[in-house]
Amino acid sequence: QVQLMESGGGLVQYGGSLRLSCAASGATLDHHAIGWFRQAPGKEREGVSCINMSDGIRYYADSVKGRFTISRDNAQNTVYLQMNNLKPEDTAVYYCASAYGICTVQTAQAIRPRDLSDFASWGRGTQVTVSS
Q1: pLDDT of the chain along its 132 residues, tens only?
Q2: Using the 8-state DSSP alphabet, how is residue 114 labeled?
Q3: d(CA 94, CA 101)
C-alpha cells in the first residue's frame, strides 16, 4: 500500500508562489497516477492536476492552467506541484493521491479524468492560504 505525505503549504500573498511536495513510501510509483486535489471550506474536493508516473503526461484543471506545474522525480518517489501567481480562491487544503494506472479513462464518448474514488491512497493534506 502506498503511503503519501504532503508538505510545502503555507501562507502567501496574492501573486506569490509555493511548491508542494508529495513523498511516497511503501511502494514505487512508476505505474501510478498521482493527482493533486484541493478542498476549500464548505466546498467539494476537486481535482487540480495529475501526472502519469510512467510517461510524465500531465493534466490540469482549467482554473490552474498556466499557473500550476506538476512534475515528478521517479528516483525520489516524489511529485511536486509548483504554484505561481496564487489567488485567494486557491486557498484550500491540498491533498495528493495515487491510483494504479494513468490519470485518465477512455469512455465511449471521450477521454476523461479519473474519478476521485479511483484514487486509493491519500495523504493527510497541507494547508495553502492566499491573502488578498
Answers
A1: 899 999 999 999 999 999 999 999 998 889 999 999 999 999 999 999 999 999 999 999 999 999 999 999 999 999 999 999 999 999 999 999 999 999 998 888 888 889 988 999 999 999 999 999
A2: P
A3: 22
Question: How many alpha carbons fall within 13 Å on the CB side of residue 105?
Answer: 11
Question: Phi and psi (nearest 5°) for 89?
Answer: -70, -5
Count Cβ neighbours within 10 Å for each residue of 60-96 and write b for 16 or more, e otherwise. Answer: bbeebeeebebebeeeebbbbbebeebeeebbbbbbb
Strand partners, 24: 4
Q: Using the 8-state DSSP alphabet, how is residue 132 labeled?
A: -
Q: How far apart are CA 10 and CA 20, in angstroms?
A: 10
Residue 48 main-chain phi, psi, to 5 deg: -110, -50
